[in-house]
Amino acid sequence: MPQTSVVFSGILGPGGSGQVQPGMGERGSGAGDLIFQDGRLVSGSLEALMEHLVPTVDYYPDATPPLTSPALAMRAMPPAGWAFSATRSPHSSAGLHPAGLWVVLGHKRTFIFTFLLTSRVFMPPHDLLARVGQICLEQRQQLEPGPEKAKLKSFSAKIVQLLKEWTEAFPYDFQDEKALGELKAIAYRVTQCDEENGTVKKAITQMIQSLLLSLAARSQLQELREKLRPPAVDKGPVLKAKPPAAQKDILGVCCDPLVLAQQLTHIELERVSSIHPEDLMQIISHTDSLDNHRPGPSEPVTCLTLQCRGDVAKTYSLEAYDSWFNCLSMLVATEVCRVVKKKHRTRMLEFFIDVARECFNIGNFNSMMAIISGMNLSPVARLKKTWSKVKTAKFDVLEHHMDPSSNFCNYRTALQGATQRSQTANSSREKIVIPVFNLFVKDIYFLHKIHTNHLPNGHINFKKFWEISRQIHEFMTWTQVECPFEKDKKIQSYLLTAPIYSEEALFIASFESEGPENHMEKDSWKALR
């Protein structure tokens, strides 16, 4: 069975000693039910983790505690290796990246991000928000009888800050009417202590306005992507005749492999930027429903697998990016199979090999894999006379990098090298890392399935969710890179809208180029005609 790229047994297992540490400030009855190892939160009951999320007058999640308590100073820090930056995403229409919690607030805000991200495995966001509202109400009721209104106002401001961080980090949690209703209910409660035009009310108003803008921007993006989805060519037109020689192909639009690889990178970064952390958690949220259909070693775990079992609206971004990979593979196969002359088909194959190599050099592994997949599709792979004329040394190197043996060990080594280059880069060109998305999905899937959610004592295995959150954080960091290459609208328009043959049409074009050679191919050709 495929394994994840990191060995987790020592990191995520239930073994090891732990200690219970109390929360900071006044907490509820479940707050002591948290286990720390070396000062880091590793497990706890769901109720304790929820209470740990909610601020009090004297406490805010992940805030730096007094230096007189070194153990508490480390209490909710993530595992080593986390790095956070204060940057803006070049692709985010709202300015701040949708994963803005860890982008904007720096490395101290990791428990909030990790718990808000991973808690949806156990409950939908609107239920978590409802529980947060209940805890807030209980805290407020304890404060109201007191004479000091300043404490009540301070508590309200911290609740608003938590909600602000939530709506910035995961705005699409609030597409759900229940969640939006819970948000408004909490906002109403915390503003009751504030005077007209007070700072708390102003903060709430700004938060709601920003949230609605983010939701509207995503809706518009989905509509635009639907309009740009390329049509498939049906069987009829292909059967009648090969396309005329004068009809434009990819070489007529761009004959420079480097330029085409750069334009593919533009498209990749634009499309992957529409994926948000909560979208990636759908990989986990929906895999629990796959127990009756557990994918085997040879069956890929894809976004399409998730889409047919999950909420289509919530997996839209994953589905769209997965679809782009398939469309690019089919476009490569179409461009090869539609060519009439063998000499020109040979040139087309060598061109795409060079494009894939340039993608590898850039760090665009997803497009590279899609191109290789397109050339390995049966209608292209069977063109033996054409391939005999191709200089395949470069192609052999590319296939070596994408060799699936040892869980794609060669690819993972190359990905690690690109990641290290990105971390020490002095230019935007060196920062580009676009992993093979289906392999990333598979890694998250098996990380979730291999390691248990709960420990023997009933606690949530928070070590596991630290690691899931770390991997998602790393992926989201890659999506923030601004593409340094000049955009060519003509080339991109062709890549996104050029007709793509269906699988059946590809076989027809392939057989017309090089006739069937064995009984199986002859039977297939006969059935297609």
Automatic annotation (TrEMBL):
SMART domains reported in the protein's UniProt record: RasGEF (SM00147)
One GO BP annotation of this record: Ras protein signal transduction
Pfam families: RasGEF (PF00617), RasGEF_N (PF00618)
GO cellular component, one term: plasma membrane
InterPro entries reported in the protein's UniProt record: Ras-like_GEF, Ras-like_Gua-exchang_fac_N, Ras_GEF_dom_sf, RASGEF_cat_dom, RASGEF_cat_dom_sf
The N-terminal Ras-GEF domain, residue ranges: 37-212
Location of the Ras-GEF domain: 256-516
Molecular function terms, GO-annotated: guanyl-nucleotide exchange factor activity
Segments for region (Disordered): 10-29
Keywords in alphabetical order: Guanine-nucleotide releasing factor
TM helices/strands, residue ranges: none
Entries under PANTHER family matching the protein: GUANINE NUCLEOTIDE EXCHANGE FACTOR, RAS-GEF DOMAIN-CONTAINING FAMILY MEMBER 1A
Name of the protein: Ras-GEF domain-containing family member 1A isoform X1
Annotated organism of origin: Heterocephalus glaber
Lineage, top ranks: Eukaryota, Metazoa, Chordata, Craniata, Vertebrata
